[in-house]
């Protein structure tokens, strides 16, 4: 699942609807503590950072949902990954 989502999110030729479905699925999955505590979850942050920079508002919305769920679980490794990426700056820019 992780490799599929990463390929889907990074593929510039993929239909926006497919990306929207993948990121909304990640938003739902990131509500589960077992998913967030998985070591591979921190690997999603660079991809989410790229996705947050999308021109589509819906992409940013669901990416923000994933980030909120990840931060809510207070996993130090994930929070460090988020802070070391440019995703916070992208989030602030998207809010205005």
TrEMBL record:
Give the residue range of the signal peptide.
Answer: none
A GO molecular function term, named singly, is: microtubule binding
* This protein's GO CC annotations: cellulose synthase complex
Q: InterPro entries from the entry? A: ARM-type_fold, CSI1/2/3
GO BP, sorted A to Z: anisotropic cell growth; regulation of cellulose biosynthetic process
Tell me which domain of life the UniProt entry assigns to the organism this sequence originates from. Answer: Eukaryota
Report the PANTHER family cross-referenced here. Answer: PROTEIN CELLULOSE SYNTHASE INTERACTIVE 1, PROTEIN CELLULOSE SYNTHASE INTERACTIVE 2
Q: Can you say what this protein is called?
A: Uncharacterized protein
